[in-house]
Amino acid sequence: MALITDKKVVVLVGGVGGAKLALGLQQTIAPENLTIIVNTADDFWHYGLRICPDIDTVLYTLSGRVNPQFGWGVADDSTITLDSLRTLGEDPWFTLGDKDMATHLLRTHMLRQGHTLTEIVAHLATQMNIQPNILPMTDAEVATVVNTVEYGKLDFQEYFVKHRWQPTLKDLSFEGIENAMLSTQAQAALADADMILFGPSNPWLSIAPILAVNGMRSALLARPVPRVAVTPIIAGKAIKGPAAKIMGELGYEVSAQTVADYYGDMINGFVYDQRDTPLKSHGLKTVAFDTMMKTSEDKRRLTNNILAWLDKLEAI
Fold it and tell me: 9-312 falls under which CATH superfamily?
């Protein structure tokens, strides 16, 4: 397979959409040239275990273990442990498969031994035979809190999973973000990057916490390279998840244009979907591709198109 670029690429992701783009990049970039920085504001403690949903989605996707039906979790998993909890009177509303639980057990064990999350993710990636560099956005604990009309403040997973993201959102906050520092590994990757991508992840739930980490914005602005976001919105709808619903509840027009405007000076380029009308560029470099990623070939085609386009651009 021919490599589309020999440049060093950093991509910021969270959730299923970001993991899909990361998989496409893994298929088209030399592994030593790809770094994936993942949202950790969705992380939480559950039954004494540290759960990192976005990190695990990326790990399982890049290792080929992911459940293809959902885009998260492990394929062909069982729920014997959860079923047993139900017999003990529990309501385990967050699905933890038995194979999946091994990841959480090991991560929690290593955290209690004093390892950082960055070290743990590197270990898990090695054991899953993943070659690109996967980094959590920070080693500090950060928690997204969703302020809702119906229930007041909810922990993110209660909002997202237990209530199936149906409560009406009033605003968001990131607890612990003031103590969240950019790791030395993430700093080094950004300082060496030739291209920086924002995955087609939820801008408010997945990318905003990454940008809120101390040192992240300044590290991005310091790089005079293409910093390009890929739209999560196609023809006024989110491909997956609550992005469109949240945009409407926060008073935004649901469009790719809104996403580009939201990122502001963090980006200097934007990829929107060919089904949409051209963006008002406001100085951005923009391009339209088919951004729907349903198959492996879709992922390869989109990443090939993006990288080939970026390779033709001079540093912005």
Answer: CofD-like domains (3.40.50.10680)
